[in-house]
Amino acid sequence: MADLAKITGVKTSSIYYYFPSKDALIEETFRIGIELVHSKVQEALESVGPGATHRERFNVAFAAHLSALLGENDYSSANIKNYSHASVEVRKKNREVRAKYGRLWMSLLKDAQADGAIGDDVNLSMVRMLLIGAMNWATEWYSPKGGTIPEIAECLCRMLDGLAPRPAGAAAVSHQPA
What we know:
The chain is mostly helical.
């Protein structure tokens, strides 16, 4: 709190005028971070319109998530980097805003599956967690020298292409350990 006060140019005790506790400040930071990413993804999806292909929709959603996370605000990256270190109470209070964002992605995945772009045998909950986790991990490794956000979004789309229905007669992948 002392570091935050120094950066903002206020006394430490003044922060408590706005936030009753450190947890309340962290909770608000997390909420803002998720809502900023959510709104950027929603805006990107609206910009391509209802006639866009599933691939186009995923591409703009990936790019918007990554852009918001990697450069447009510090709230989102603070959320990603600190969520697991927050108290159980802070995480509990943050679950609904996270779940709401997760439902946006689940909606995209279900629509793609319903239209046959993703196989019926694919576990969409798992895919949603893997996609969001992969994008969020970019806070650890991303460098503009290693690829642009549009290139990363395209790579994620190519990964999704692999979830298309298997050709008739193709063997299912065994989920048993080797």
